[in-house]
Design a protein that fits this description.
This protein is an alpha+beta fold. It has helices at 88-99, 106-126, 151-159, 221-229, 269-276, 310-318, 323-330; strands spanning 2-5, 8-12, 18-22, 25-28, 30-33, 36-39, 42-44, 48-53, 58-61, 64-66, 69-74, 80-87, 134-135, 163-167, 170-171, 176-177, 214-220, 239-247, 253-260, 264-267, 286-291, 294-300, 308-309, 335-338, 346-350. It folds into three domains: 2-78, no CATH class; 88-209 and 304-350, no CATH class; 214-300, no CATH class. 21% of the residues lie in helices and 34% in strands. The longest helix is centred in the N-terminal third of the chain and has 21 residues, at 106-126.
């Protein structure tokens, strides 16, 4: 659902010709059609449009206020690709308020702001060219737009404007996560990253206060069968065993083996999280114990475990560590650099939380 509070104009994405101009747009549904795009009852014979609010106006998408402009593109399969183009610092205001509680110590918020800024720029300048730079969810960084911005997190963004993390003169992939559970992970789990600062093994005893430090999940054999049957892995038949058969150096599940009478299936720890839900299986740092008709997963942490541990950063800040010192702890052998005029760098975002 789309709504625009204030003056706006709509232009064709390809020709840049103006299609419509208005004082406001009441709440309308947006959908794709063979003939183009449909806004409410109005059919726009255009494959893609750009919606640009005037100064002081704002866009609301599905109840979430957004800064910047919106591009809506009809895909070949008649779905919509909706991209929010927003300046870097405005984007970060919408990220930090979602990624970190505003009551956390200022130095922790500043450290996470620098990590988030660097991550966004790294994705923008190193990923293959495409219609967007980052997703607005946990697969990149959680993004709430203007909705939910907090004074404390906004101050942290402003206090660190133009500050980024570098390694050997290059932008550094500043992965971060909620709770490492005791030790960070090698970045190879995120892709072909073999940079010294991300080789893992940073022992973190500082996130034990996290509510996600320890967790437990019970999966019945029926749960496992149902999840497999509704995934790309397909049905496996009656399950006899589930075991972690290989671990990374940090203790996380690298290989999980599921055994049935007819088939043996080997999954990565990431696969298991994706199969049952990232909120349900909070990290790959878990063990499996078989009980009558079920499997008990005892786990630690939340997230992939690579890079900065947010709950650990909060505790380090409480102990007097500066943002610079926190970043040096989780990203050893990196440097902070100030580059002018980063604030106006555009970031293209798809999706996002409310």
């Amino acid at each position: 659902m789309l709504q625009i509070h204030g003056r706006f104009r709509i232009t064709d994405l390809k020709t840049q010709a103006q299609i419509h101009e208005g004082r406001r747009l009441n709440l309308v549904a947006v959908r794709a059609a063979p003939s183009g795009l449909v806004l409410g009852e109005e059919v726009l014979p255009h494959v893609g449009v750009r919606i640009e609010p005037s100064s002081g106006a704002a866009i609301s998408l599905n109840g979430r206020r957004l800064r910047g402009v919106l591009e809506i593109v009809r895909q070949q399969n008649l779905t919509l690709l909706v991209v929010n183009h927003v300046e870097l610092e405005d984007y970060l205001r919408g990220v930090l308020s979602k990624e970190a509680p505003d009551y956390w110590p200022e130095e922790a918020l500043k450290a996470i702001a620098i990590a988030a800024r660097t991550y966004a720029l790294y994705q923008r300048f190193t990923k293959e060219a495409g219609p967007y730079d980052v997703t607005g969810d946990v697969m990149s960084q959680d993004y709430g737009g203007k909705t939910g911005e907090k004074a404390a997190t906004t101050r942290a963004v402003k206090a660190t404007t133009d500050v980024i993390v570098m390694h050997q003169g290059k932008l550094f992939p500043t992965f971060y996560h909620s709770t490492c559970g005791g030790m960070t992970e090698h970045a190879r789990v995120m892709g072909p990253y073999d940079l010294e600062p991300l080789r893992g093994g940073v022992v973190c005893t500082f996130c034990s206060a996290s509510p996600f430090y320890s967790w437990q999940r019970r999966l019945t054999k029926a749960d496992v069968n149902w999840a497999l049957r509704n995934s790309r892995h397909g049905p496996i038949g009656p399950i006899s065993d589930v075991q972690v058969t290989k671990r990374t150096a940090s203790g996380r599940a690298e290989e999980v083996t599921i055994v049935s009478a007819s088939r043996t299936l080997r999954l990565t720890g990431f696969d298991v999280r994706a199969l049952f839900g990232f909120d349900r299986i909070r990290s790959p740092l878990f063990s499996v114990t078989a009980t009558d008709g079920a499997f008990i997963l005892e786990g630690h942490g939340w997230g992939h475990g690579v890079g900065l541990c947010q709950w650990g950063a909060a505790e380090l800040a409480r102990r007097g560590f500066s943002a610079r010192e926190i970043l040096a702890f989780y990203y050893p052998h990196t440097d902070l650099m100030y580059l002018r005029d980063l604030a106006n760098q555009p970031i293209a975002v798809i999706g996002g939380g409310s």
